[in-house]
Design brief:
The complex is a heterodimer of chains A (134) and B (119). Chain A is mostly helical and 134 residues long. Chain A has five helices and no strands. Chain A starts with a helix and ends in a 12-residue tail after the last helix. Classes of the chains: A mainly alpha (134), B mainly alpha (119). The interface between A and B is large, with 105 and 96 residues.
Chain lengths: 134, 119
């Protein structure tokens, strides 16, 4: 049953992520923590592996629509290696509970961002649907 | 590519990578707005280009975490394979469902998730 629930959350992550442009990974981590009893840091690690494939599919599709500036993407990706190492090191250093609370805060921030975007879009906008600040 | 542009891309890649490594997410939350504000990308281009960067960034992160012994490939498939199906389904129904409703549903899911993690 837990496997079904985790898979369902993964499905929703992929679907909603593609639809609203927020990565589905933010649902992979809680799927692994809540339904498969993974420690927060292990869930994050496993989520990253899943994201490689999901992002590859997403990038391939977006490339088909002409939305990918390949060189810019590769430069950013290639340069990300140091930042990633730092983030992973911290995730492995702080306590599981701290990491869990930080992740919960991230979920709330993204939720607020989505709600703000909806409110903004429902207003008769003078400008052409400018995206919200980070 | 000008030096200024290269430096901005480098900084965005580093920030996005840090965020991705710390939270186990893609990093698009950081990368997309920065591409829009610093490099005047359109929203769609920012999303598409961010995804390309995330393939590499998430791969580094997964390798790093594997060195720590934290990656569970079976579980990655358990959420990742349905997610791939979700991406395809989402694209197929995109025209038929209102984006606002989807955004709100996603927001509710995230709040519920945060509550579950906190308590």
């Amino acid at each position: 049953m837990e496997y079904v629930a985790a898979g369902a959350l993964g499905f929703l992550g992929g679907m909603l992520g593609g639809l609203v442009g927020v990565g589905g990974g933010v649902l992979f981590v809680p799927a692994l923590v809540i339904f498969l009893d993974q420690a927060q840091v292990k869930a994050e690690a496993t989520s990253l592996l899943a994201i490689v494939f999901v992002a590859a599919l997403g990038a391939y599709r977006q490339y088909g629509y002409g939305n990918v500036r390949v060189r810019d993407g590769l430069v950013m990706g290639a340069m990300g290696v140091i930042g990633v190492a730092g983030g992973v090191a911290i995730a492995n250093t702080v306590s599981g509970r701290t990491l869990e609370l930080m992740f919960a805060a991230l979920c709330l921030v993204i939720a607020a961002q989505l709600v703000r975007r909806v409110l903004k879009a429902s207003r008769p906008a003078a400008t052409d649907r400018a995206p919200g600040p980070p | 590519m000008t030096r200024d542009r290269l430096l901005k891309l480098l900084l965005i890649g580093t920030l996005g990578g840090f965020f991705s490594g710390l939270f186990g997410v893609g990093g698009g939350t950081v990368i997309v707005p920065l591409l829009i504000f610093w490099l005047t990308f359109g929203e769609r281009e920012a999303t598409g280009t961010s995804l390309a960067a995330i393939v590499l960034i998430a791969a580094y992160g997964a390798i790093d975490q594997a060195i720590y012994g934290n990656v569970n490939p079976g579980y990655a498939a358990l959420v990742g394979v349905p997610a791939l199906a979700g991406v395809v389904t989402g694209a197929a129904v995109q025209q038929r469902i209102p984006e606002r409703a989807v955004s709100l549903l996603f927001a509710v899911l995230l709040v519920a998730t945060a509550a579950e993690l906190i308590f």
